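Technical note accompanying the year-one report. For the benefit of new consortium partners, we illustrate the data format agreed upon in the data management plan: each record pairs a sequence with a structure-token string. No post-processing was applied to the example shown here.
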Amino acid sequence: MSDKKSLASTSAHEEEHDYASGLAVVAADAVTNPGMEPHRERMTDKSVKHEKTAARQVAAFFIASILGSIYSIYAYFAFPLTEELGTVRNNTLFLGLGITLGLLGIGIGAVHWAKTLMPDAEVSEARHQTRGTEEVRARAIEIIKLAENESGFTRRKLIRRSLYGALALFPLPAIFFFGDMNPNKDPQELLRHTLWKKGTRLTKDPNGLPIKATDVTIGSVFHVIPEGLTELHHGKLEEKAKAAVLLVRLDPADLKESAERKSWSYDGIVAYSKICTHVGCPVALYEQHTHHLLCPCHQSTFDVTDECKVVFGPASRPLPQLPITVDAEGYLVAQSDFTEPVGPSFWER
């Protein structure tokens, strides 16, 4: 019995030794440096014809970028924004197509240039953090100049000129787009005044039907526009963007109103601007149980019970409140315009 145990123990030790030896061999093989893969020549390296074809393709992409930038400027004027919803769709679509072509042309052209014409040999070198000697720095400058010569930037006039044209024209559409921001006017002044004024009825968006206080039940939410907006032709979209309001009814006991705002609500009905004070997204998500309004863009959250103060998110100030009351017929009307500018707070800075 003892001999059998001894033999079993010896066999086990031999197996462990063989296994360890095998791991050592595998580990030694695993860390062996395989070296660089054999360099594979491209057709552009072997054929002048293919090289010229690739250069023309790169230039074609840059020229496509130029055409895209020009087209986006054309689309800006050819598809103007009007009161019809379809014009907004067309304006956005064709402007986007032009800008996309302008970006893709530059990007794809640069990548194709690097893939087909620039040197593709792999190089590995050690890097260090200390400042090199003057000889090393001079050598680095030589390498940079060599890379410039190898890329053919100065030699390939067609690519260079088309790239210059694409880069020069691509920013131009922004000049026209930003022109609509009225740089000669005070943004605060533009956002301080809306269509709301004393006696203006609150109407449903988009049909323009007036709203009675009795129509608003506790927990309900109405998207509201000023009366007469649906008949407005010039500047309708801009005015609606500024004057859009959310109407909510709560239990009056839940409202935390400051002394100067106690008369701004009516029997628990409050009205606040829909434009988020962060970057101007529409605040349209109401959580009935928490009485919170949520902006879907960056999750700024406002407490309706506490004068729409910010409880979460990047917004820096509460939503402006529209003072409301009822007229002789029981319809909800505005007491005045907003008492502060609507929209993003960065205009104030």
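Partners are asked to follow this layout when depositing records. Strands lie at 202-204, 221-226, 245-249, 269-273, 285-287, 292-294, 301-303, 309-312, 324-326, 332-334.
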